[in-house]
Amino acid sequence: MAKTFPIIALLFLFCCGSKKTKENAQINNKPRIAVVNYPLYYFAKTIGGDHVTVYFPAMDGDPAYWKPTAKQVINYQNADLILANGAGYAKWLEKVSLPSSKLIYTADGFKDMWIETSEGLAHSHGAEGEHVHKGTAFTTWLNFKFAAEQAKFIYNSLTALVPDHAEELNGNFEQLMTSLSVLDKRMEGVASKIGQGILIASHPIYQYLEAGYGLNMVSKHWEPDEMPTVDQWDDLKKIITENQARVMIWEDNPVEEIKSKLLELKVSIVVFNPCANVPEAGDFMDMMNENLTQLELVVSIM
Q1: How far is CA 257 from CA 3, 226, 228, 294, in A?
Q2: Residue ranges of the chain with pLDDT lower than 50?
Q3: Are 54 and 44 in contact (CB under 8 A)?
Q4: Dihedral Cα 160, 166, 169, 174, nearest 10 deg
Q5: Which domains, ranges and CATH numbers included, belong to the chain?
């Protein structure tokens, strides 16, 4: 018996060690969620917490016009869940083969409220090349009620993927919904103060913000780093004169030359970043709160 004991003990330790290794592998093998823009990344990561890995490849510019490499497409294909925005966002999805069983369009729940656009003027976003905004408006999350619907879609999908952590996911989801509700109430307050006043948008990307909160916007095709032409300035002056417009909303800070010209025209600048890509500082909620703070400040002195 004395000779067999070490063998039995070794077998016991080996079995226990194998079991622990298997358990560790299960813990480290988190479901992989692939997303097409930063708002979806933020929602998925906030809800899923440490129980999921969220894949959103680093990219320059607007993810709506981004094109993945072959390797990045494979990363999407290998994900356990692919979160798309819907409403025509990320056209590259139509040109690659992704497993339909894994692909979720988070804005489909309010498809009947998508906004069709007629902005057909071709223009460019630097390296993104020339394109048009004709079709369906896709920055759905700028209506914070719609953002909440997209978050709910994600919550339901993640709960089905990691049911053992449903209680924790529910807590995370409820906190996110509270934060989105606060944004929604703040935006409603700003909109009530603006009333029927005309706002000028530097780009036609605020359709859901406009429709969701009863705003009146006139959209242009101006880039923050490109000085507009004389004709464009003349057109803006006409809008200002006819509508008494005194606020222009931008995706990013315009260059000083543009700022100075707008100051001469007594037009206030508000940066309302859609946050489609990863912000330089903070997160989605930080960016949206800063957007609203800027808008509230300008509206208070209108």
Answers
A1: 89, 9, 10, 21
A2: 1-27, 120-130
A3: yes
A4: 100
A5: 25-165 (3.40.50.1980), 176-300 (3.40.50.1980)
